[in-house]
Amino acid sequence: MEDRNAPIGVFDSGVGGISTLRTLAKSLPKENFIFYGDSANAPYGERPADQVYQLSVTAINQLRKQGIKALVIACNTATSAAKPQLISRYPDMPILGIEPALKQAVDAGKKHILVMATPLTISRPKYQNQAAKFKDQATIYSLPCPGLADRIELGTAGLPQISSLLDQLLAPYLGKPIDALVLGCTHYPFVKDIIAEKLGGQIEIYTGYDGIERYLEYQLRTKSLLRTENQKQTIQFMSSRDTPAELALYQDLFDHGIQR
Ligand code: DGL
Which residues are recorded as binding substrate (predicted)? Predict the structure, then answer.
């Protein structure tokens, strides 16, 4: 297979990256994708950064065995813990990473911004520096959400637990005039309507992967890596929890999301 007709790898600690994959697959319909979810080791967001790096390497090596031409780290946690090291380790392919879209919310003039992310993402200097940089332009509430990604790993079956955990996490913010919600973990867009409903009011939601398809397209185009074959798009799922039930969950989340 010529490089340009190879698939694009999309990687996350688990099912979260499927929310990003949905956007990418729709926006780049001529490209093939292989998704790898490290569900056996999720959540990453409550592990030390060096472990997240090691786990990411193992997962990415699985995707590289499939001959991917580019990689999207559809995981804010892995991006914040390991992206520079991963770029140095794999200089032969474009690597893009999802990050909390705090800047987009500030640039849009939002004044009371709630950022939900994993404990590791929130604790990293990258996020902390960004939040400090924007503190004069907006009130930023940084909310680490331990336990939320693992409940979303259960898909629709996790809904009752997701709802009660969200009630606890969001309780301190209910009276605040929040006008923007930054979902700094790719698991959370699957429950964005539930979060928005609980917060109430007019809230703009930022997922961090808006625009990633344009950046990916640009990277592929400038490196002459856009697919030229004319066959139908294929999307393949791989998981470190390699059971038929897990792969069926991935497909279901890709097709339908979390159903209420
Ligand atoms: N989906 C991942 C993210 O965007 C992380 C969830 C986790 O494994 O903790 O940060």
Answer: 12-13, 44-45, 76-77, 186-187
